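From the shared-data thread, chain only:
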Amino acid sequence: MGWVWFYASLLMTFVGASLYSAFVQTHASEILKVVAGSVTLLTALGQALAKANLKFYLLWQRIWIMLHGSETAIWRFGLRVDGDLGSNVLEDFAQSAKSSLEQWHPEIHSCSDSSLRMKVDRTIHLHAQLEHAAFSEDGVSHFLVRSDELEVPYASARAKIEQCIVPLLGIIARQWPGAEHSTMFEVSFRKKNPFFAFFVAHLDPKQVTQFNLVFHPAAITRDGTDRVVVTQNSLHIDAGTTESFAQLSKAFILMSSEIASVTNL
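Structure, as tokens:
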């Protein structure tokens, strides 16, 4: 908080002195100096507060998101199911998708013994693959559902997570209630991760590995398996449940309040 008090004191001193000078001489140049100097110091003060106070930073970033709502990022998500899945996994999944996902009017584009391609809506296309227990190294069947790339603007990111991706993954996971499942979420930013600098400012050097910031959000995960990797240009989330997927994706994409418990900041 030292830099915050420094910039705050400097700002009050500058504004006070400049206002006195402006009111005494009433010159336009003096008023302009007040405005320019105040904006500069306010910006520096805001940056210092953002580094020192998480709540202020979250407010600052929500404003940034509102002002940049049209900017887009490339998303990919997926779900993996492990266990005894039955003998007709892909056929069962295709039939279940038509009934369970009817609100999105899914279309099956192709289906074979080992893979399936499906269009859920205009933006979400899924590719499902099955590895039979007889051919897997651990003797367990693995069913992997991954999305193709989809372009999502910040303005609709929360709705996409809450109203589409999380319900979709939940429906798929509930088809095999006795099996283990995990989720994956990747985000590639067009330019750079706008929140990367904040994470760097609040980490110990040991948490930075080859320019990758690795988080293990114990506050959300029961068994400690969830992991978030943040880089300068991307974001990758591995979550054990759809609930933790929802919390982590909103925390790291939309700077929601959950970020405080996730990162232990």
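The first helix runs from residue 2 to 25.
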